[in-house]
Amino acid sequence: MVRTKRKDQPINPIDIQPHSKKLRQEKKTSLQKRKRKQNNKADEDKKDSKRICSQIRTNQGMVSYTPEYIQHLKESYDKRSYLGEPNYQCRYCGAIFWYNERNQTESRRSKQVIYTNCCKNGKIKIPPYKNPSEFLSRLINDRKSTESKHFLQRIRQYNSLFAFTSMGANIIKDINKGEGPYIFRINGQIHHRIGSLLPEQGHAPQYAELYIFDTKNEIENRIKALHKEDPQETDIDPNIVHELKNMLDKCNPLVKIFRHARDLLEKHNGIDISIRILGAEKGDPIQYEMPHTEDLAMLIVGDLNLEKYKRDIVISTKNKGLQRITIFHLAYMALQYPLLFPYGERGFQLGIPYHENGINKNKDKKRNNVTMHEYYKYHMHYRPHQPNPFLCYGRLSKQAIVDARAMEDEDRLAYIARNQDKLRIEYLQGVFDAIEKGLSESNQVGKKNITTIKSHRL
Length: 458
Prior knowledge:
This protein is about 35% helix and about 10% strand. By secondary structure, the chain is mainly α. It has a domain at about 135-360. Helix 5 crosses helix 6 (about 145-155), helix 7 crosses helix 8 (about 220-230) and helix 9 packs across helix 10. It is extended.
């Protein structure tokens, strides 16, 4: 086949029609207008934000929001995030929760909404708290009355008036100088301490001593003790203090045993008296019902050998200084929060077993008992028509929640300290040796090995 020479053909010029060029120009102009419009809207939003933020006040480093800014946030909630209402309820303990809090794996497996953070599918069963007295219930629930508003505003101070123990903690108070919701914040460790039955010579009574010493002037002594601890707290209603005192005298077994000690000291001046608040050890029977006075505390006349009662709290007329209360004592919270636990309810106890319909099915598992974290997590859930001291007492409940969290942290740190041999600390020795040698990079540590490189090709 003979090849022929290709003839050069001229390239036709591209015919750009006028109407296509016009369309492109109009599209470009439209995009520019849309961009300018978006920029103008962004500038307006920025100006509004600056106008609102310019009204935000600062007070000693604390931010205080104006009503206009708060309203602006409320109007933008729907655009941010909204989880709806907590319309779901645990079928075992009745705890209320949101749909997004469900256990997704369990819910997918059983094809129904399941929540397990409250009672672990019914493994944790703790009876509800008893309703408070009529007077205390009215102070808590009648939010419209002036007396109730005053009490809820000062509930932490009223609780301190009747607390048996002092709370040692560095409380950050400056955080509440703004207009936001109340926050209870601490820095460092919390510890509860209790003193003696009688104050030292020349010292004013405080805490547990107020239940025994000079009870004829008890109301005045309690208010003076509060003023001495915090001079700024002067707005205390003596009528509320008197009614709360009568309530605790009537229903609190701890108060009753202290009053009995007062009567003995007044009748037999100079005798030695000790109050032994009973503790519990792992393996002791679990009791949830309202404790009787003889089940919670004992009054002992004469000398007492403290070596025999290391698990108990022993307060006597001879005590000097303060003794620290262990977090595992049954009355740890009841001694500090008499208004939250007016009946002296027992707190966390080691050895609370899981509930398995009366049969222990967890014998093969590593742990069969409720931990402190699980115990307090159970109480942090709201259940309809059940009084809850950790949720229903405003500012005092917030303090109790922080206190419970500090107890959990102390329990975990104590576990680490007790089980150093079981935590394989020897594996950290290599890290310590490397640091001592001045090695700071991970590639400087370890043994170098030379290996061959093989290439695989498909």
